[in-house]
């Protein structure tokens, strides 16, 4: 897997997890989901990807 494929996969995973988070009822805290999002966000930032545009 080259770096483009790794970034593309991480972006897809982050966007998917963010949609799941956004669909949760207000006030629900899923620590596993939060941890996965944080980990992916750190990886994407290391690749120079701005995750703010993925949080829709």
Short key terms for the protein model shown above:
56 residues; mainly alpha; 2 helices
Characterize the structure shown.
By secondary structure, the chain is an all-alpha fold. Helices cover 66% and strands 0% of the residues. The protein is built from two helices and no strands. Helix 1 runs antiparallel to helix 2. The protein is elongated. The mean pLDDT is 94.
Fold topology:
Blueprint: H1 3-23, H2 31-46
Work out the helicity level: 55-70%
Largest beta sheet, briefly?
Answer: none
H-E order = HH
Q: Which runs of at least 5 residues are low in confidence (pLDDT < 50)?
A: none
How large, in whole angstroms, is the Cα Rg? 12 Å
Oligomer: single chain
Portion in beta strands: under 5%
Straight-line distance between termini: 28 Å
| Mean pLDDT metric | 94
Structural class of the helix and strand makeup?
A: mainly alpha
Number of strand elements = 0
How would you describe the shape?
elongated
Number of DSSP helical runs: 2
């Amino acid at each position: 897997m080259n770096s483009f494929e790794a970034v593309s996969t991480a972006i897809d995973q982050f966007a998917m997890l963010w949609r799941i988070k956004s669909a949760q009822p207000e006030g629900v805290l899923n620590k596993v989901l939060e941890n996965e999002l944080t980990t992916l966000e750190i990886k994407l930032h290391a690749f120079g990807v701005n995750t703010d545009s993925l949080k829709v």
